[in-house]
Design brief:
Helix 8 runs antiparallel to helix 11 (230-237) and helix 12 (244-262) packs across helix 13 (267-274). This protein is globular. The longest helix has 19 residues, at 244-262. It contains 14 helices and nine strands. The protein has 291 residues and is of the alpha/beta class. The protein folds into two domains: 2-145, Rossmann fold (3-Layer(aba) Sandwich); 149-288, Helicase, Ruva Protein, domain 3 (Orthogonal Bundle), CATH 1.10.8. It has helices at residues 11-20, 42-47, 64-67, 83-95, 121-127, 132-138, 155-170, 179-187, 193-207, 215-218, 230-237, 244-262, 267-274, 278-288; strands at 2-4, 29-33, 72-76, 97-98, 107-108, 112-117, 142-144, 176-177, 212-213.
Length: 291
């Protein structure tokens, strides 16, 4: 399985859920960051080694494949694997056997491989930096994790979940976000996705002087905000009795109509202009009644 998506969208969390909800849940889940392993150590880290296989090998050690036997091996940032290691990985997938360094024989392994990367693997194949045969082996099933900016309607749920978690861990009263703070979080562009939202809230809760968390406590990066400018926040906080969902729908509708007008009502181009997929654009237009 291949999980794609930008950094911070929860690719490892998705892999863990697949493991925990599947028939291999009782066996190990072994996460590996392929970009963090020096190329000279990759073979020994992945396949293990026998005692005396090389200088410093004072005892036998299992590699990632042996550790994950019967369970799931999660290869994060798989696009960072060098070509030589890609060849070895392809052989393991095909033969379902691994050979430790210094071992004359191969041992069978039963491992489900889930890989992930924030890079475009198909583009890496075109560039010649990722093997096409390995790509097809890994990309049997693909799961795309959407960026947080495409899930704005779910942000209040994410906020509530994170605040509940912080309160549980700290054993303190659950903090409360002001309407202006919620508006700012709903409108923020989140270049770091869910991981950034978690960091923003954790910092804001720590910096807030009381039980209320306001816009200033969030410390949002101005250059990365989309709709969360001072005029928008002022409009909502002093706008009267309009409910927050209605206000956000109005802002979103205006942004979509503006993008459609700018692209002569080409939905595909308007979606790109807004940083949305065509499917997400179509869903939002249907939800907001834009025809």
């Amino acid at each position: 399985m291949y999980i794609s998506g930008e950094s911070g969208t929860g690719k490892e969390r998705a892999a863990r859920l697949i493991h925990e909800l599947g028939p291999r849940a009782a066996r190990p889940f072994v996460p590996v960051n392929c970009g963090a392993i020096p190329e000279t150590l990759m073979e020994s880290e992945f396949f293990g080694y026998r005692k005396g296989a090389f200088t410093g090998a004072d005892s036998e050690r299992d590699g990632f494949f042996q550790q994950a036997n019967g369970g799931t091996l999660f290869l994060d940032e798989v696009a960072d694997l060098p070509l030589a290691m890609q060849v070895k990985l392809l052989r393991v997938i095909q033969e379902k056997t691994v050979r430790k360094l210094g071992n004359p024989q191969e041992d069978p392994v039963d491992v489900r491989i889930i890989c992930a990367t924030h890079q475009d693997l198909a583009a890496r194949v075109e560039e010649g930096t990722f093997r096409q045969d390995l790509y097809y082996r890994l990309n049997v099933l693909q799961l795309k994790m959407p960026p947080l900016r495409e899930l704005r309607e779910d942000i209040p749920h994410f906020i509530a979940t994170l605040l509940d978690r912080f309160a549980l861990l700290s054993q303190e009263k659950r903090p409360h976000l002001t309407p202006a703070a919620v508006t700012a979080l709903m409108a923020y562009n989140y270049p770091g996705n869910f991981r950034e939202l978690e960091n923003i809230l954790e910092r804001a809760v720590a910096l807030a002087g009381g039980d209320d968390v306001d816009v200033a406590d969030l410390q949002l990066t101005p250059s990365a905000t989309s709709l969360a400018d001072s005029e928008l926040l002022t409009e909502y906080s002093h706008g009267g009795q309009e409910a927050l969902p209605d206000f956000l729908d109005r802002v979103e509708r205006a942004a979509i109509i503006k993008a459609l007008e700018a692209t002569r009502f080409n939905r595909t181009q308007a979606a790109k202009l807004l940083g949305l997929t065509f499917r997400s654009m179509r869903y939002r237009m249907e939800r907001l009644g834009i025809k």
